[in-house]
Amino acid sequence: MTYESPLRRPLITGKTSYKQITDDIAGPVEAKPTKWWTYGFAVSFAALCLYLFSVGYLLFTGVGVWGLNKTVDWGWDITNFVFWVGIGHAGTLISAVLLLFRQKWRTAVNRSAEAMTIFAVVCAGMYPLLHAGRPWVIYWGLPLPNTFGSLWVNFNSPLLWDIFAISTYFSVSLVFWYVGLIPDIATIRDRATGLSKTIYGVLSFGWNGSAKAWSRFEVVSLILAGLSTPLVLSVHTIVSFDFATSVIPGWHTTIFPPYFVAGAIFSGFAMVLTLLIIARKAMRLEHLITLNHIDVMCKIIMVTGSIVGSAYITEFFIAWYSAVEYERYAFINRAFGPYWWAYWSMMTCNVITPQLFWSRKLRRNLLAVFIISIFVNIGMWFERFVIIVTSLHRDYLPSSWAMYSPTWVEISMFVGSFGLFFTLFFLFAKFLPVIAIAEVKTVVKTSSEEFIAETAKKDGIQVPIEVD
Amino acid sequence: MKNKYLLGFFNDEEVLMHALEEVKKETQAPIHEVYSPFPIHGIDDILGYKRTRLPIAAFLFGCVGLSCGLGMQTWMLGYDWPMNIGGKPYLAWPDFVPVSFEFTVLVTAFGMVGTFLLASGFFPGAPAKIPDPRVTDDLFCVAFNSSAIGDKAQAITQALKHHGAIEVREQEVEL
């Protein structure tokens, strides 16, 4: 048994037992959907229908229905692509990086965060697919033997790297998530009856919880975490290469990879918080996803937000310091040109709001955290818009300068992509355990309030346990 | 195939670990397997399990992925159909890093997970070979193969009960 200092804050509050944890997490899966779930699902599904309609319209008419022009040829499509990919990064960070660092608090949030990763990457992947114009021939982007004279794809292109990065990220995240789910699906299988027993039985792969299986399971999880850690860094690095390897002023900077990765984690954690603050309340999981969990996630937002903030300032400084006229203009134009409002929205939401989390009171105030997390999401969306549109709209030839605004198709596709994301999330929350049951049980003996109080008594330590 | 097993049930993993050590000392009976709702650290040593060789498999899959990724790009752009892109070298190996890396990760992850499932006999629809449905909830179970323990069954039952088992029973079950 590992020793955990009683001075650490508990990760499970109140009285608990293994049975209780199973009941609390598997309960919502077995029960009839609540009223709130039904309403939430209905709204999300309506948004999904809007998505399907606008995508259908796009496919029948062509990408000309977007507001792009020959100067601004990347607009909301790529903005939303990068936005959604970024959202996904928190899930992998929580499940992989925090596993390697042996952070026990991850056990309560990793499952739902990983699910978010997968759903966000689904939303993201749709954009390049549709932007390609003819999604039915998207396989031309793969190195397949073909009838065009064995001409292969260009492996020197960052856009091709992106295809490999995103599809690998999606499939490896899916495998990681599913492997983690197997023992929990088995738990539900062994409690279920009738048809659901059969379905969960098939999905549980015959998991038996034997010591041999657990021993292999733990090694597999650890190696998958070791693989996912460089993978998650590579994905947003490669997304940033889409810009950084070009020759467009404002894009052509070496700071992009680390700055994109930090931004991705920043936005991902904001989305995790937005969702979990609602989910823990709606599913009555406050004793498992405690204020202490929210507190640490706020700290991560603050750190990554500060990295992003310093990257913005560094970028601006280097543009001036490089003494390249075009580079300087790109940045001055960003801040004071016609898109100044986008730039300053980004700066306010991403640089100032996360700094509020220096206050412990705010980190533990659910309403404040919820509002700030939404501001961060908005700010990170603006970041991508600023990078893409302001760098493109005034190029080297003033005669081709242009402005860009989205049409109803782009707007409804973006609103609709939230529908896709939330529909998938609601289905997940209903049919699968939202918290890793087996993993939470492993921290009961070290980090539950009850246990900490016991250890403290044994050690004769006065513990300032705050019951929030 | 169903066999007869002596099953000892516990409701706490620490009690189980202690009991296993004691039973092993007292009776030297071979333990068939232990079932638990979550991984118990340190139980591998008691059961005498060697460290799994999955990391080796993962490494080999990684080597396969890396060489396939790198080999594919080299062959396609270097030999099969060299493309002149702005007069740059055909074999621009730094450009091959991202795809080679992704290939490595992809093949390692899928290969290793596939090996794990195959080795453990887990596949969609596989029958759940568990001694009791509660072992995925809050029950810990140790199983002794009745044919392997022979006449020690009595002694084991007593030792298990003495060291905190909440239930001991002999049962015909497929494990």
Question: How would you describe what is shown here?
Answer:
The complex is a heterodimer of chains A (468) and B (175). Chain A has 468 residues and is mainly α. Chain A has a single domain, classed as Up-down Bundle (Formate dehydrogenase/DMSO reductase fold). Helices cover 71% and strands 0% of the residues of chain A. Chain B is α+β, with helices and mostly antiparallel strands and 175 residues long. Chain B has helices spanning 13-27, 43-47, 54-80, 93-120, 146-149, 153-162; strands at residues 3-10, 33-35, 140-145, 167-173. The interface between A and B is large, with 66 and 65 residues.
Task: Determine the N-to-C terminus distance of chain B.
Answer: 8 Å
Number of H- or I-type helical stretches of chain B: 6
* N-to-C order of helices and strands of chain B: EHEHHHEHHE
What structural category arises from helix and sheet content of chain A?
mainly alpha
Gyration radius of chain B (Cα, Å) is 25 Å
Averaged pLDDT of chain B, please? 89
Order of helices and strands of chain A: HHHHHHHHHHHHHHHH
**Biggest sheet of chain B, in brief?**
4 strands, antiparallel
| Overall 3D shape of chain B | elongated
> Using DSSP, what is the number of strands of chain B?
4
CATH topology descriptor of chain A? Formate dehydrogenase/DMSO reductase fold
Largest pleated sheet of chain A:
none
CATH class identity of chain A: Mainly Alpha
Give me the secondary-structure category of chain B: alpha+beta
Helix content of chain A: over 70%
Number of helices of chain A: 16
User: How many strand segments of chain A?
Assistant: 0
Please tell me the CATH architecture of chain A by its name.
Answer: Up-down Bundle
Number of domains of chain B: 2
Helix proportion range of chain B: 40-55%
